[in-house]
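Structure ticket #2291
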Amino acid sequence: EVKVVESGGGLVHPGGSLRLSCEASGFSNSVLSMNWFRQAPGNERELVARIFPVSGTTNYADSVNGRFTISRGNGRNTAYLEMNNLNTYDMVMYICCARSTTDYCGQGTQVTLSS
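Resolution: structure written out below.
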């Protein structure tokens, strides 16, 4: 059974940092890329960052470039998203998707503004 599980979301102050984790398991074919999306209520899903596990190549949305860093874990199907200098626009649901023969996505992890 394929599973994609995110963790690491929570409360954060503007200007703060969080590290999200994503672990994908159960794949019978290779995972070609690990992708972090985010989505606010009523908005379309936005690709935030992507990593290609074999090469280590990364891509970022302009809105997070220089503040977020995606990296891979020891296992090819693990990815992290280090988020720094967070602002109110970053306080949304983050969803990890593993791309193989198709995309498999987790349930998401919420990043919330701390008052």
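Closing remark: The radius of gyration is 13 Å.
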